[in-house]
Write a structure and sequence with these properties.
Blueprint: H1 2-28
């Protein structure tokens, strides 16, 4: 269960970072 929670948190953090980058690229484009 601990490994699953870690993977879930990592996925959320990675997804948030990608979303921020995508939004920035979209705004500047």
């Amino acid at each position: 269960m601990e490994g699953f929670e870690r993977d879930a948190k990592g996925g959320i953090v990675a997804g948030g970072a990608l979303a921020v980058r995508w939004l920035r690229l979209g705004r500047t484009a």
